[in-house]
Amino acid sequence: MWAIERGQFARLLAIPGLHPRTLTLTIRHQDWWWWEHDEPLRMESAWVPPVFNYLSDSVRELRIELETLERKKEQVEEIGKQMRERWYFRRADDVVLFPDLSDNGTVVDRWTGPSTFDGETWTRDESREGEIDYYILTVIFRPQKVVERIGQISPTAKDLAEKGIFNKDGLRIAPAEGDSDNDEGNDSNDYDEYEEEGEEEEEEEE
Hints:
By secondary structure, the protein is of the alpha+beta class. The protein has two domains: 2-174, no CATH class; 178-206. It is built from seven helices and ten strands. Strands 1, 3, 4, 5, 6 and 9 form a six-stranded mixed β-sheet that branches. A hairpin with a 5-residue loop joins strand 4 and strand 5. It starts with a helix and ends with a helix.
């Protein structure tokens, strides 16, 4: 998540000669901010508009896979709902990709994995002894004409796209009572911490 929000997805798409038909961006359970502390799911949005500059006109479908724990599926569904209502992607040829508000716009998948990782057992997240159940919601963005033929575009997202505006407010779950004062502070700490770690790794590689 920290890499995406720092613009690395846009930089990847800027590679010369890269013209994919389908793009899949996957957020794993361990990619969400402070998953270790079981914090509510959240995703910033400011990284999306820079992608417009590098999204090839070859792209027919952009899929964002959001994986979380089965017990947190309501949270990821709310994130997906907000995304489908407000987000869009604009290709280099000015064609806009929208998510579909109908059932055609998302795919749900599930899988089960071990609760032990790198020598540590995450008993907090176990669905049963030794196992964790995961829930994956995929939001699919397709060209406007395609979505209008098979489903429904959010009036809000369509209006924003027509005006050339992108709502950069983050996708968030309403914080629990008493937690609202802490939310913004976590963002700045997250960026600072990971940026320092990234700089240290770069120095070591040099």
